[in-house]
Design a protein that fits this description.
With 180 residues, this protein is an alpha+beta fold. The chain has helices at 64-74, 81-84, 96-115, 120-135, 149-158, 161-166, 168-175, and strands spanning 11-18, 20-25, 28-33, 36-40, 46-49, 56-62, 91-93. Strand 2 (20-25) and strand 3 (28-33) form a beta hairpin. Helix 3 runs antiparallel to helix 4 and helix 5 (149-158) runs antiparallel to helix 7 (168-175). The termini are far apart. The mean pLDDT is 87.
């Protein structure tokens, strides 16, 4: 179903674990690569094209009820409308270290479903809160100025200790833009 345009009645958290492709969503094209995280909503229509031979995604299906409960738990100050209202679903490019951290959390989630049985639902919800709030953080009010969304995300990423200490190489990697 990756190559056929489709929609569904649930949310998807899609993480590109390897390779790259074009994500065609709501009539637009988003280039995605290793480390890209996208929050697909039920009303979105999408598919993938020009997949590299090593393209691999981690796909987490989330019911509408679970997302509603998650956003209610996080409260209005989380500003859930920023994930619901734009024409295109939110996406973000993670650093390699952040991608590894998220993958480890998801691996632990899979293990918990086999070991915790009836208590695994709590781990699932906690993991969703952690991953969604990490991947789509609340922006400080002073960053809500007229700037491109990629630059806003870059500024937030560069505030992280690991990226800040890495310096210019991290800036270039995270910007996904040419040096000009």
């Amino acid at each position: 179903q990756l190559l056929t345009e489709h929609s569904h009645d649930y949310y998807e958290l899609v993480i590109v674990n390897r390779g790259n492709a074009l994500h065609k969503v709501n009539g637009s094209i988003q280039p995605i690569m290793k480390g890209t995280v996208t929050f697909i909503r039920p009303a979105d229509t999408h598919y993938y094209s020009q997949l590299s031979s090593d393209f691999e995604i981690i796909n987490i299906l989330i019911s509408q009820k679970t997302v509603t409960n998650l956003f209610n738990f996080l409260g209005d100050s989380f500003e859930p409308e920023r994930l619901h209202t734009p024409k295109l679903p939110q996406y973000r490019n993670l650093s390699q270290n952040d991608l590894k951290m998220i993958v480890v959390q998801l691996e632990q989630l899979i293990l918990s479903s086999h070991t915790l049985h009836s208590r695994a639902e709590a781990v699932y919800r906690a993991t969703l809160v952690s991953v969604i709030s990490f991947c789509f953080p609340i922006e400080p009010n002073d960053l809500k100025i007229d700037m491109p969304s990629w630059f806003r995300r870059l500024c937030l990423e560069m505030m992280k200790y690991s990226n800040f200490t890495e310096g210019i190489p991290a800036l270039r990697r995270l910007a996904s833009k040419g040096p000009e």
